[in-house]
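Q: what does this look like with adenosine-5'-diphosphate bound?
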Amino acid sequence: MWPRPERCRVISVANQKGGVGKTTTTVNIAAALAMHGQRVLVVDLDPQGNASTALGVERDSQTRSIYHCLVEDEEMSKLAQPVPDNPNLWCAPATIDLAGAEIELVSLVAREARLKRAFAAYDTSELDYILVDCPPSLGLLTVNAMVACDEVMIPIQCEYYALEGLGQLLRNVELVQSHLNPGLAISTILLTMYDGRTRLSQQVADEVRSHFGEVVLNTVVPRSVRVSEAPSYGKSVMTYDPSSTGASAYEASAREIAHRAPTVGR
Ligand code: ADP
Ligand code: MG
């Protein structure tokens, strides 16, 4: 059992680059927290629905999803589904409808604050964490996530070009801070797909640490085949292969998050 936060921590996992490990990080950190007694809701805000798939959440054309919540004011409690084999873990799934939301939201009142409103109407007192898996863009869906959360977690892939585009992400966070959500903080940076055999991984890690300091978790997530296999079984790596290097790295990352005092804005 890890310590519970005083109130539900709402964390967006964001980076407008695709393939940097946002979904993998969301799903596995959520599963690791849940395994240690935390009650966790994953909100899948990517029309691809990869987080919903990875958590084994069934969807069909009738499924009420985060789209209905954002566009039709459906209650979060009506769409959150329990995740199979993971007591303490729920998922508000995404379906492909969400691909149109980016445009449909434009004409709605308070279009940047739809998710925030949905959270406000939802009883989060029974939850310890909400993790929001963002799409690979800085559009209205990601803005909704940043307006609705207290903390942003940025996964950074230890590859060439990893830092490209980061400036733009940081500027967007600042814009949201100054206009829409003053309490927002970048609380966590996680280095993913680290390959200890390459000097490049080490260089990227050093650069990120010297630039961002203590918000960078000490743990780095190594490149691991088990991590990439798990979603095809509808599982997190935490349940698919708990003894793998990927699972231990995500467990250690989640432990750091759980033991860090939540920062600014709380
Ligand atoms: P994003 O959500 O940022 O687009 P994903 O989490 O979907 O990124 O990851 C992109 C790809 O990289 C996926 O195929 C995923 O399985 C793989 N991947 C992510 N993390 C790791 C890792 N630590 N080791 C190996 N493959 C990984
Ligand atoms: Mg993703």
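Residues 22-23, 46, 50 surround magnesium ion (ligand 2) (CB under 6 Å). The chain has a mean pLDDT of 95.
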